[in-house]
Amino acid sequence: MSSKLTVDRAQSESVQEAVVSSILSERKVIDPDTYFDDNKPPANLRWANGRVSEFVAQQPKERPIALVTSGGTTVPLENNTVRFVDNFSAGTRGSSSAEQFLASGYAVIYLYRDQSLQPFNRHYSHNPDGVLGYLDIVDGKVVVKPEWAEQMHRDLELFKRYKNANQLLMVSFTTLSDYLFLLREISLILAPLGPRAMLYLAAAVSDFFIPTHIMAEHKIQSGSGDLTLRMNQVPKFLRPLVKNWVPRCFIISFKLETDSELLAPKARHALEKYGHQIVIANLLHTRKWQVWLFTNSEPEPYLLQISKEDIENNRDIEHYLVVELARRHQEYISNSNQL
Ligand code: 9Z3
């Protein structure tokens, strides 16, 4: 498969033609190790390093820690970015799971796509009037509308409780590159914790990207016909993550497909290839109701699905999923302690 991007146009301008030919001459899959030398780190990397190190150091020794990634990565088409390719994810899985991990006694580092759903805030993103849609003015005072008051009270109370207990840290990303730099940075901070740290990789990560050095510098100009994109394959980061960054931690990745025939073989393939603990497989259209847990030790996947009653009672699948994962994580910790 070709692995480099071309940004070309019929009758394109000379700069763009030069980019195209230089790209066409280099078609190879990029090594995960060289990725970080060739791409720019995000502006919040140093801040994240300091805050995550501090957060981890402040946790009581017995408290398990979960890195929860959430939301989709963007892939810019221009260095001065006007356009980008996005990855599908609302951040529901990640934000709901983060709430459940907190309820299960975890400290949570929530690595999320800027503007995507966040724990405890996630119920307040769908009002056509924005935040003002939840509020009213009564006797000259701003109040929460009665129909939202109970839920908002509950969410605010939990949010404050976990923040005060120093159990929740939020770090945001936008692009694929931001995500990968932050993932590596945070992983390396968690590595010394070994089995006590869990990585729950629910973010929807692009498989294709345009390396910075071959990306158009300025806004790609219109007016000369169609635009064709050729994108490089993103290096397989799960390999160095499992093998080198956090080899002793408990790692859960997600596999998203739209074709049900592909789901099981692809989940199994990921497990065999990377050798981590769990792959959670889900289909785009049923992801809120059904997931399958694949492990290397079980011949059949473990199916988790929620009932009509759960849906009617607003009970998310993440509630059951996280309970099951926390149980398996505890087992992993106990088994590691016995070695
Ligand atoms: C998932 O499969 C998540 O469950 C969803 C959650 C993104 C579907 P929402 O945020 O959706 O609740 O709307 N995430 C992982 C997707 C992914 O990029 N996986 C890669 C792959 O499938 C491997 S890391 O190849």
From TrEMBL:
Span of the signal peptide: none
UniProt key word Magnesium: no
Residue ranges of the TM segments: none
Annotated ranges, domain DNA/pantothenate metabolism flavoprotein C-terminal: 199-287
UniProt keyword terms in alphabetical order: Ligase
GO biological process: coenzyme A biosynthetic process
GO molecular function: ligase activity
Catalytic activity, EC: 6.3.2.51
One Pfam family matching this protein: DFP
Domain of life: Eukaryota
Family in the record: Belongs to the PPC synthetase family.
The name this protein goes by in its record: Phosphopantothenate--cysteine ligase cab2
Source organism of the structure: Coemansia spiralis
